[in-house]
Design goal:
14% of the residues lie in helices and 37% in strands. It has 350 residues and is mainly beta. Strands 1-13-12-5-9-8 form a six-stranded mixed beta sheet. Strands 2-4-10-6-7 form a five-stranded antiparallel beta sheet, with no helix packed on it. Strands 19-16-21-24 form a four-stranded antiparallel beta sheet. The relative contact order is 0.15.
């Protein structure tokens, strides 16, 4: 009975737990919807865990994922020394167990409650790393329910009972991730009030890639496969890109930053039987905390009914036209030079 009372009492001066996102030491991250990224949980191994007599009775780590995060896999569970020079991988089902459970109020089958519990064998390894840490790295994916421009937080909890039966339940800070979006508007050049549906666009992280048509931003399709992120303008002429990372990927405050993207029209629309020409150049756009709420006409694309496509400025297509034109001019000049009468011929003709 006395031990039960000690176990039920929660002490506050025990081991600590920390949690980071993407990389250790980072509390804020920017990610794309559908992107896989890591969370890192670090928990203390108290300095008084020095031999088999001071091995903890319980060592359990809990993590309940936000509904906008989907679990992917556990990357590793390790113990490491205080100076971080020595590490050892813990073995699943030998040194620890890992279970997933359904969280009340969340969708059936989501199993977002994650639980790592060190076994007797695992706890027996802790004295070798006294004063060090247990380090858990696992991967999640930002799903398509993520709110744009909103912090998505996630914390963890340690349930630790020492060799005396004193229980500690510290909670970690809550690192966060963000994602954003941007929209463009497609209209008729001669009649800007006429919105154009059916135009297709891709988005790129650099102007060079946009002009080359390579390394487009990718998103997951319905089967979970990464494919180029392509959107089509609707009847309102708007094409919306959602779930784009912005700010510093591993900065202290990505919400205060912004990221440049370049949008390329990959297919011009056909409206009322008329084929519009494709946009000449990539359009530079800014993604930040509020870009998804900006009016679509912030970036308006005007297209004429020219029925031909022009290459990107600076692209190989315009170079071919220029070279071809130069060749034709050269040939014309030579023809004139050899067919025009010289001075003597002129005299003779007299």
């Amino acid at each position: 009975q006395r031990q039960m009372c000690i176990r039920d009492r929660i002490y506050s001066d025990g081991p600590e737990i920390d949690k980071d996102v993407i990389t250790e030491g980072n509390q804020d991250g920017a990610v794309d919807i559908g992107e896989d990224f890591n969370w890192i949980i670090t928990t203390d191994i108290p300095a008084d865990v020095i031999n088999e007599k001071t091995v903890p009775r319980e060592y359990i780590i809990y993590d309940v994922l936000d509904s906008r995060l989907d679990f992917v896999k556990v990357e590793s569970v390790k113990v490491r020394s205080k100076d971080k020079t020595q590490t050892e991988d813990l073995v699943l089902e030998t040194d620890y167990t890992f279970t997933r459970k359904k969280v009340e109020g969340q969708a059936e089958g989501s199993d977002r409650s994650l639980i790592w519990e060190l076994t007797e064998a695992g706890r027996g390894k802790l004295p070798q790393y006294s004063g060090g840490q247990v380090v858990i790295t696992f991967t999640t994916r930002l799903n398509d329910t993520a709110d744009l421009g909103t912090a998505i937080e996630n914390g963890a909890k340690l349930d630790y009972t020492n060799w005396e039966g004193h229980r500690y339940t510290p909670e970690s800070p809550k690192p966060e991730v963000h994602t954003g979006g941007v929209s463009i508007l497609k209209v008729d050049k001669a009649d800007p009030d006429k919105k154009l549906a059916g135009a297709k666009f891709k988005i790129y992280r650099s102007e060079a890639d946009a002009k080359a048509g390579q390394n487009a931003v990718q998103m997951r399709n319905e089967s979970g496969t990464l494919v180029d992120y392509e959107v089509t303008s609707g009847e309102d002429g708007i094409a919306r890109f959602v779930g784009l990372s912005y700010g510093d990927q591993t900065g202290s405050k990505p919400t205060e930053g912004e990221t440049l993207y370049w949008i390329v029209e990959t297919e011009a629309p056909t409206v009322d039987g008329v084929k519009y020409n494709r946009l000449h150049d990539p359009v530079k756009v800014v993604v930040n905390l509020t870009s998804h709420t900006a009016e679509p006409n912030t970036y308006t694309i005007y297209n004429a009914k020219d029925n031909y496509e022009l290459p990107f400025t600076g692209g190989t297509g315009i170079l071919i036209f220029l070279i071809g034109g130069a060749v034709l001019l050269g040939v014309s000049y030579l023809c004139l030079l050899y067919t025009s009468p010289g001075p003597r011929d002129t005299e003779r003709s007299r």
